[in-house]
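Protocol step 4 of 5: obtain the predicted structure for the target chain.
Materials: sequence only (see below). No template structures provided, no constraints applied. The aim of this step is simply to have a reference model before the mutagenesis design in step 5. Sequence pasted as it appears in the construct record:
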Amino acid sequence: MSHTAHIPSHRKPRQRASKSALRAGVAGGVLSTIAVAGAAGPAQAEPVTQTIEMPTITTGLSTAVAASAQATQQVALDLETRAYEDAAAESAAKKAKKAQAEAVRKAEAKKKAEAKAEAAERAERASRTAERTTLSAPAGSSSGNSSSASAPSSSSSTATGSAGAIVAFAKAQVGDAYVSGGTGPNAWDCSGLVQAAYRTVDIDLPRVSQSQSTAGTQVSLDNLQPGDILYWGGAGSAYHVAIYVGGGEFVGAQNSSTGTVQRSMDYDRPSGAVRVL
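Step 4 output (C-alpha cells):
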C-alpha cells in the first residue's frame, strides 16, 4: 500500500454528466423559447392585418371624394353661369346705352334739319317776294291796277267737273305728312301730291316739279282757275309745285315741318302757273 493512499484528494469532484446535460437543456430551452418567440412575432401581426376592414374604408372614401368632386363641379358651373349672365347683362346695357345715344343724336339731327329747312324756306320766300315785287312794279304802274295779281277772279265754289275732283282730292290730303319722294297715301312731296290729284281724273303728269311746270299752258297769276298748277322757280326748272284751289289759296305739300297745308298765295307767292285742263 502506498503511503498516500489515505490522503484525501483536493481536486474538485467532476460534475456529473446529468448536471451538464441539465444545464445544457436549460440553456437550450431558453434559446428555443427565444427563438420560438421571435418566430412567433410575425405570426402574431398577421391577424391584426386581416381584421382591418379596408374595403369598407376605401368605399367610404371613394363616395366622399366623388361627392366632393361633384360639389366642386357644380360650384364651377354656377360661377361660369353667373359670369355668362353678368357678361350678357353688361353687353345689353352697353347696347341700350348706344341705342339711346343714337336716338338722341338722330332726334337732334332731325330737329336741326327741320329748322334749317324752315329757315331756308323763309329766306327763299322772302327772296322770291322781293324779286317779284321788282319785276311786277312797271307792269302794275302801266296798267294802273296793282291788285289784280293778288286777287284771282275764280274761287273754289266755281270748281266743277275734273277741276272740282282735283281740288277735292288736294284738300282731302291737308294734314298729311311731307316726305321727300312721298307719293301717298298719307305722306307726300309737292310733285307727288300734284301727280296723284291729276291721276283722279285720268291725267298722267310727269313725276317731278321741273317737268310739271311745263306740262300745260302757261297762264298769268291774275287769271287762275281751280286746278291750275302753281310753281315756284322758273318754268322747266321749278323746285316746288302746288294746286290752286280758288279764292286766292293753294294746297301743297310744303316741307317736313308744315306737312300738307292749304295757304293763301300771299303766304308764299308762286312764280307762275300752268293749265292742264
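Step 4 remarks: Confidence is low (pLDDT under 50) at residues 33-41, 131-157. The chain has two domains: 61-132, 151-275.
Proceed to step 5.
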